[in-house]
């Protein structure tokens, strides 16, 4: 299946109705750390240029906060698009996080929900 | 009122202070929160793609336990399930919505062996919703030591509010926590960051990102005069409290501020025994006790 079709399929979202207002990026608390903005991700998805998004850090930086979805005037669930991109990347490549890079002290201190939710989002 | 209660891992580890205070407060209000006799991980963060049914199995198993509790008579015709943790609330409620689609429900039921079928009739509630239902008048009657002069800023985070179909209140401008804090007699301070993201699970491998968010999320309520922040979620609480250390290394001007669960403030306002405040559990970066002592609340 073509990648763009796959994103649409597993996210259940049709991004064609996005009119690039930019509200999602303006609402995104993690925008400062992303290389592509959420609005750009949606535009590239419309154009079917998924490979371009897959080489960005945006969907890894997204924290699943749903702020963009709460405000999108077209009611596009951008958070689901981010999840679809994470999944496509994970299903094809290796896991994103390597816990060996996190110190033992930190691992002891961090709440289990942080650890498990991180692994949910960054490993397949 | 006897109501099934799902604790989740946080309430037994980093958020013991939340559980101990909430249980005591509930019991004062005549609510008996009955822990599921057997529970597993809520599933932490629902999968947001629709070909990943496997990830909905964990929450659905927990919902089946509520059916079992009714059948075995542990609770009587009580199909509501109350949660304290925002992440558990979000995940369980999302899974419940997910299986409104009968085809998905059948698939999940077929997938689980040795488990009775989930019938779809459980209602997932957050403790804040339950308190609202109990009524603020009833709560006000239990307030023996109003939090007068304590400047509290509410903080909701994401998962209790968004997306809208899961949220307990308006996703942009909720007020449920403010109302409760007012009943407790606190001086509620406006917090423009109350629905912002705390950085969530990035706290594991992207500490500097979380440190920046912590700084942003604390700066504005502090500027508005807040002396303490009241939280709902164990992950927000950890990030807002512990990551102040990293935030201070990056932003020297950050003033430290204690972070407590609203349930702890309730226990204090109800003038319960100190052990129910959950302040002696060694869980803090910024210890709330000095402030509470200065306000004659501890
Ligand atoms: S908020 Fe919605 S319509 Fe506006 S740019 Fe983002 S996705 Fe497009
Ligand atoms: S869900 Fe992701 S993309 Fe959307 S606002 Fe939150 S962090 Fe940004």
Which helices and strands, and how do they pair?
The complex is a heterodimer of chains A (124) and B (298).
Chain A lengths: L2 H9 L11 H5 L10 H9 L3 H5 L3 H4 L5 H5 L6 H15 L11 H6 L2 H11 L2
Helix pairs in contact in A: 1-7
Chain B lengths: L1 E5 L2 H4 L3 H13 L3 E4 L21 H15 L8 E4 L2 H13 L3 H10 L11 E4 H8 L1 H7 L8 E4 L21 H8 L3 E2 L18 H17 L4 E4 L2 H9 L1 H7 L8 E3 H8 L19 H6 L4
Parallel strand pairs in B: 1-2, 1-3, 3-4, 5-6, 5-7, 7-8
Helix pairs in contact in B: 2-12, 3-4, 9-11
One iron/sulfur cluster binds next to helix 2 and helix 3 of chain A.
Description:
- The complex is a heterodimer of chains A (124) and B (298).
- Chain A has 9 helices and no strands.
- Chain A has 124 residues and is mainly alpha-helical.
- Chain A has a single domain (3-123), classed as Fumarate Reductase Iron-sulfur Protein, Chain B, domain 2, CATH 1.10.1060.
- In chain A, helix 1 packs across helix 7 (78-92).
- Chain B is α/β, with parallel strands linked by helices.
- Chain B has 2 domains: 2-128, Glutathione S-transferase Yfyf (Class Pi), Chain A, domain 2, CATH 1.20.1050.140; 135-294, Rossmann fold (3-Layer(aba) Sandwich), CATH 3.40.50.
- Chain B has helices at residues 9-12, 16-28, 57-71, 86-98, 102-111, 127-134, 136-142, 176-183, 207-223, 234-242, 244-250, 262-269, 289-294; strands at 2-6, 32-35, 80-83, 123-126, 151-154, 187-188, 228-231, 259-261.
- In chain B, the strands form 2 sheets. Chain B has a 4-stranded parallel beta sheet with strand order 2-1-3-4, sandwiched between helices.
- In chain B, helix 3 (57-71) packs across helix 4.
- Chain B is globular.
- The complex binds iron/sulfur cluster (2 copies).
- The site of one iron/sulfur cluster has 14 residues of chain A, from helix 2 and helix 3.
- One iron/sulfur cluster is lined by residues 27-28, 30, 38, 62-68, 78-79, 82 of chain A.
């Amino acid at each position: 299946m073509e990648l763009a079709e796959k994103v649409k399929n597993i996210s259940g979202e049709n991004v064609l109705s996005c009119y690039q207002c930019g509200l999602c990026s303006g609402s995104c608390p993690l925008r400062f750390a992303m290389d592509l903005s959420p609005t750009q991700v949606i535009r590239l998805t419309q154009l079917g240029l998924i490979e371009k998004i897959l080489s960005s850090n945006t969907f890894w930086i997204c924290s699943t906060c749903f702020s963009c979805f709460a405000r999108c005037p077209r009611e596009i669930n951008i958070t689901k698009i981010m999840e679809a991109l994470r999944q496509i990347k994970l299903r094809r490549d290796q896991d994103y996080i390597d816990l060996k890079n996190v110190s033992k002290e930190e691992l002891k201190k961090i709440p289990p929900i942080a650890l498990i939710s991180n692994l949910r989002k960054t490993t397949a | 009122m006897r109501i099934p209660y799902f604790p989740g891992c946080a309430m037994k580890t980093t958020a013991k202070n939340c559980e101990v205070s909430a249980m005591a407060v509930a019991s004062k209000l005549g609510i008996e929160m009955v822990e599921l006799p057997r529970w597993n991980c809520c599933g932490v963060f629902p999968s947001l793609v629709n070909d990943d049914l496997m990830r909905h199995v964990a929450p659905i198993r927990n919902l089946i336990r509520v059916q079992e509790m009714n059948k075995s008579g542990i609770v009587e015709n009580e199909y509501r399930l109350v949660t304290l943790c925002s992440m558990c609330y979000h995940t369980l409620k999302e899974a419940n919505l997910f299986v409104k689609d009968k085809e998905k429900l059948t698939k999940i039921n077929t997938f689980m062996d040795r488990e009775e079928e989930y019938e779809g009739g459980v209602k997932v509630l957050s403790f804040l919703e339950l308190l609202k239902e109990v009524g603020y008048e009833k709560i006000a009657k239990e307030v023996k030591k109003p939090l007068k002069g304590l400047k509290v800023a509410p903080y909701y985070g994401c998962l209790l509010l968004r997306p809208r179909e899961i949220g307990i209140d308006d996703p942009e401008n909720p007020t449920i926590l403010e109302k409760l804090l007012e009943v407790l007699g606190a001086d509620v301070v406006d917090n423009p960051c109350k629905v912002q993201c705390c950085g969530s699970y990035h706290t594991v491998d992207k500490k500097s990102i979380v440190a920046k968010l912590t700084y942003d999320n604390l700066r504005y309520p502090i500027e508005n005069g807040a002396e303490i922040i009241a939280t709902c979620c164990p992950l927000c609480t950890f990030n807002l409290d512990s990551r102040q250390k990293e935030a201070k290394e990056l932003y020297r001007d950050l003033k430290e501020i204690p972070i407590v669960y609203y349930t702890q403030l309730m226990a204090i306002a109800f003038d319960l025994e100190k052990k129910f405040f959950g302040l002696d559990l060694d869980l803090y970066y910024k210890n709330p006790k000095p402030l509470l002592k200065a306000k004659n609340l501890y």
